[in-house]
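Following up on my earlier thread - several people asked me to post the actual chain instead of describing it. Fair enough. Here it is, all 336 residues.
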Amino acid sequence: MNLLKRNYNGEVDNHQLFDGAIKGMVEAAGDPYTVYLNSKDFQQLSEMTGGSFGGIGIVFGKRGNDYVVISALEDNPGAKAGIKSGDIITAIDGNPTRDMNMEQVANKIRGKHGTVVKLELKGKDGKLRTVSVERCEIKNPSVGGQLLPDTKIGYIRIAVFNENTGDDFAKKYAELEKQGMQALVLDLRGNPGGVFDAGVAVAGMLVPKGPIVSVVDKNGNKYEETSSLEKVKYPLAVLVDHGSASAAEIVAGAIKDTKSGKLFGTKTFGKGSVQSVYRLDSNTAVKITVAKYYTPSGVSIHNVGIEPDVKVELPEDATVDVQLKAAEDYLLQQLQ
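Reply from S.P.:
Thanks for posting it. Predicted structure:
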């Protein structure tokens, strides 16, 4: 830095040099989830957590150079505007995303309640479209369920894993048991994950005694979450798709590896890493991937995803939920 300041034929801004040096070093790690938060990024993050900012209810990840929508949370502005899992975010308010990191993309999508953000999206058909979405306070639906019509098959949908999901799932599970549930469909489609402990709590009610997930840091230190369930109570089918990520993959991976149930649908997203935020000073910070998740069989799903036991595509123009139908047919056979 001193060499540049002494010899550069022009004005040198110390803050810009610092930002550029740290940003370049962090990006050289080659991990889209490891990012430098400059003073502007960090301020936006602080304002958002302070409650003055809203969003549009989408979760995205990075695939190669593309920012891909993992899930548009139901009953939120993004989903209502037609944003779908698999859409690629190519620009925000006219600014191309190719020069942004993950945190910058997120911060540009967030904003004050009532303001509008314009997203340019590339759909699975390769066509570009622009949607205008008004930001608002995001609703985080957690657990809902019922018995499937004319059956004793319970159906529980988890849209996202939040602080209450473990308790909400246990309550809905017990409610369906009182109604005579004899088998269960767990719907994790479009679930982007969320709270790690909530995923562990749900898995602990569905997989037998033994490992659920392990977290391993760069030094090989291993922390394992386990189930104490004596026996799997009911035949189980789990619905997954490309929008199932993170904590949803913890649950799906544990169920598949322990053969506690069968997975139906399409390959999951593949987000199996853990991040921590480290402050550099009062105005800047670095978010770093510090560990990875591993399924009970010791497999890392990061950037890989989980293949379903039974692959079932859901056509865009489907009038029948063929994935749910396949799971229901399987469970009916198990109950015979």
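Residues 14-27 form the longest helix (14 residues). That should answer part of your original question.
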